[in-house]
Amino acid sequence: MPRNSPGSEYRTADSVANWSSLRSIGNSSLSKMTMLVPVFGYFILFNENISQYLRLTIDTCPAHECRVGWRIFFFYFGLCFAALGAAVFTFRCPDIIKRYSTSREFFKTSREFYAHHHNLRWLLDDIEKMLGRDYEDGLNLVDLTNKGSVIGQNEIHVLSGPMAAYYNSRNKCQAGWRWASLTFYGVGAAFLAIPTLITFVEVAVVAIQRFR
């Protein structure tokens, strides 16, 4: 597939943390809701008056001795890290990635808009800013924008290259923030998975002992 054709994202080691890879998590309603956890976590999870109702173990204890169990702490910190990942995605991910899952979708949806020379000129200028050099399209699109030409329906396919380049440049921008978001999501998932795995092992042991 040509480098600049719609839908052709650059396959490098950095692709695992590109914005489009984080999009399915960051755009989900559940991910956005986790941002409320750090705000209300203290009142919900660390309130000793209701902690006994939130314990995730089957052990019982006198009301005056009940404390928040370690599983609750793991659950809380897991959601906090997930909230950090969601916050980074929400405030740092480019809008174009939030709206379109691939450059192909971006091309199909917005090609008529960029057929106008003013919009195309803006697109090419932004690509050059991202790349730090002139954009080499090979189709003299810059000349078309200078002449004030509008690209017709029969020639609109020529926009696939610059539009894909624009999408990909946005998808790969802000590497530090992308890796930060991925790291926060990963740590949060680990915190949430550990209690689940331990509980699974404990239940499995009980089941084996009962039916052995």
What can you see in these coordinates?
There is one protein chain. This protein has 212 residues and is mainly α. 66% of the residues lie in helices and 0% in strands. The protein is built from eleven helices and no strands. It has helices at residues 19-26, 29-33, 37-45, 48-54, 70-92, 95-99, 103-114, 117-131, 141-146, 160-171, 175-211. Helix 1 crosses helix 5, helix 7 crosses helix 10 and helix 8 (117-131) packs across helix 10 (160-171). The protein is elongated. It starts with 18 loop residues before the first helix and ends with a helix. Residues 1-11 and 56-60 have low confidence and may be disordered.
How are the secondary structure elements laid out?
Blueprint: H1 19-26, H2 29-33, H3 37-45, H4 48-54, H5 70-92, H6 95-99, H7 103-114, H8 117-131, H9 141-146, H10 160-171, H11 175-211
Helix pairs in contact: 1-5, 3-5, 5-11, 7-10, 8-10
Structural class estimated from helices and strands: mainly alpha
Number of strands: 0
Report low-confidence residues grouped into runs of 5 or more: 1-11, 56-60
| Largest sheet report | none
Instruction: Specify the overall morphology.
Output: elongated
- Name the average pLDDT: 78
Order of helices and strands: HHHHHHHHHHH
The radius of gyration is 25 Å
Q: Strand share of the residues?
A: under 5%
Through-space gap between termini: 58 Å
Q: What proportion of the residues is helical, as a percent range?
A: 55-70%
Work out the helix count: 11
